[in-house]
User: Fold this.
Amino acid sequence: MTFTGFPDEAFTFYEGLRADNSKTYWTAHKAVYERAVRAPLQALLDELSDEFGEPKLFRPYRDVRFSADKSPYKTQQGAFCATGDGSGYYLALDADGLFVAGGFHSHTKDQTVRYRAAVTADDSGEALARIVTDLEKDGFTIGGDTVRTRPRGCPADHPRLDLMRHEALTASRPIPVAPELETRAALDTVRDGWHALGPLVDWTTRYVMAAP
Assistant:
């Protein structure tokens, strides 16, 4: 299937799901989800897979076993192209448009240790600081789990203290609903966003995912 854009139904589907997150709504509109959300998103990812990695579409159902919120369905459709265990490129579609992101979510203590060692090292740490600055200038928001205080053993005057607080590091940028998302131009918009995120993903893949 060739990607031709996301029909307006994709975004109105999630507007409705936000208002009525029920099995009744989902069952009545499942054909819209399959046709307007899942199929074009899979087609877009397939076209990007040679460049960014094998895509994985997340399940649309929420895991409510340990959550106070028992809403059964996610109000966005997410996908991930992994470059390592927890590192890679992320894309989501919801009522507001698209959302591109990249970086890493730590799965193990060893990854956090490797990340902080690389932030401390002059060459790799300064490279990451430049990457983060460039992304912020390009309209990305830096995120990821952090500790409230500085990590144990980290000096108060560490030149990259803000980065040292991270246990995961991501950058993200929303792409609001616009006519171009209903056309093939959306493919280039996502590709451009992921290209901008490439230096961060490459850094995390090199320094965090692989054992030293």
About this structure: Helices lie at 8-19, 23-52, 109-120, 122-137, 161-164, 185-209.
